[in-house]
């Protein structure tokens, strides 16, 4: 009898909890979803996040507010790294500064601002503002410093579970820079991105795609296959500032020209890097990119970033 009573109580608790677990985010229209995604409390506890599947891509999530997804089953947070593709949606801004050695015989400096702006569970915009690109260019070997090529990227969430995320990006590069800096290029770049937490706090992420330019060939624009794979491990919890969420990783990037406008020699680079939570949702990031193939566009490149999650 005692066992029967316990079974009834347990079943009653499950039945009572079932509606709350099954309930999805509220459908508030496209404009309402955009307003809440951009300005609302997307980090609420308990989270409003729910899984999304590819089979419901056209029917679910477009009129629901984005909510920050939880950590993976092993406890790894969904975060971005320098040199690694995203996969996951974010609401944040990051400013980066990089120094590349031996670009036209001298160092190249670049400063960039990137914003991630979610509009719903399925859609967000990524905007890249190349504030300055400075290198030696032209026969007079004078240093040229200009604004780079602005890029806007619509991003679509294909599927997301507790352990994985898949997204599709469609980046549009606009010719707002200067040819002498290797810019003034117009191109479209479709890519598939993924993120996964297969074991403990180990994260595997990456993807593939292709860049197709339609202007800027004088600046060296090429139709190029792209590939990315990164592996990292988180060592500390989020609140252990200034080394919270400390992750060490290595990212590999592969570039293969496929057109007839020059050499088809491929380029492979590796980027060891880190990310750490400084406190108040500020993060410090760093990466050191090293090419391992011949005829690379630079000898090595340092990149540092300061990020704010909002």
List the helices and strands and how they pair.
Elements: H1 2-22, H2 29-39, E1 92-103, E2 106-118, E3 123-137, E4 142-146, E5 151-160, E6 164-173, E7 186-199, E8 202-215, E9 224-234, E10 244-257, E11 267-279, E12 282-291, E13 300-309
Antiparallel strand pairs: 1-2, 1-13, 2-3, 3-4, 3-5, 5-6, 6-7, 7-8, 8-9, 9-10, 10-11, 11-12, 12-13
Task: Please explain how this structure is put together.
- The protein is mostly beta strands and 310 residues long.
- The chain has a single domain (28-309), classed as monomeric porin ompg (Porin, Beta Barrel), CATH 2.40.160.
- The chain has helices at residues 2-22, 29-39; strands at 92-103, 106-118, 123-137, 142-146, 151-160, 164-173, 186-199, 202-215, 224-234, 244-257, 267-279, 282-291, 300-309.
- Residues 1-22 have low confidence and may be disordered.
Outline of this structure?
This protein has 2 helices and 13 strands, in the order ααβββββββββββββ. By secondary structure, it is mostly beta strands.
- What is the CATH topology assignment? Porin
Enumerate how many helices there are, as a single number.
2
Q: How much helix is in the residues?
A: 10-25%
| Helix and strand element order | HHEEEEEEEEEEEEE
Number of strands: 13
Main sheet summary: 12 strands, antiparallel, barrel
Radius of gyration: 22 Å
Approximate shape = globular
């Amino acid at each position: 009898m005692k066992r029967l009573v316990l079974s009834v109580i347990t079943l009653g608790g499950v039945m009572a909890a079932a509606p709350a677990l099954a309930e999805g985010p509220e459908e508030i229209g496209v404009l309402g979803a955009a307003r809440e995604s951009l300005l609302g409390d997307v980090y609420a506890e308990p989270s409003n996040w729910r899984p999304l599947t590819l089979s419901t891509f056209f029917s679910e999530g477009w009129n629901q507010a984005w909510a920050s997804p939880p950590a993976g089953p092993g406890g790894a947070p969904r975060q971005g790294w320098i040199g690694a593709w995203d996969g996951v949606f974010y609401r944040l801004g990051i400013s980066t500064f990089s120094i590349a050695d031996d670009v036209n015989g001298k160092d190249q400096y670049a400063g960039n601002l990137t914003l991630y702006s979610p509009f719903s569970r399925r859609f967000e915009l990524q905007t890249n503002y190349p504030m300055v690109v400075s290198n030696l260019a032209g026969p007079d070997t004078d240093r040229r410093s200009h604004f780079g090529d602005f890029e806007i990227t619509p991003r679509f969430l294909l599927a997301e579970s507790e352990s994985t995320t898949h997204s599709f990006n469609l980046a549009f590069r606009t010719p707002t820079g200067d040819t002498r800096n290797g810019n003034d290029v117009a191109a479209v770049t479709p890519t598939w991105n993924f993120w996964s937490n297969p074991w403990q706090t180990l994260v595997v992420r990456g993807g593939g795609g292709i860049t197709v330019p339609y202007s800027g060939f004088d600046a060296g624009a090429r139709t190029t296959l792209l590939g990315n794979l990164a592996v990292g491990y988180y060592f500390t919890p989020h609140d252990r500032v200034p080394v919270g969420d400390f992750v060490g990783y290595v990212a590999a990037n592969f570039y293969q020209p496929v057109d007839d406008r020059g050499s088809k020699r491929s380029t492979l680079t590796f980027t060891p890097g880190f990310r750490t939570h400084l406190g108040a949702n500020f993060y410090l990031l760093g990466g050191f990119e090293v090419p391992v193939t011949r005829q690379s566009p630079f000898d090595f490149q340092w990149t540092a970033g300061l990020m704010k999650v909002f």
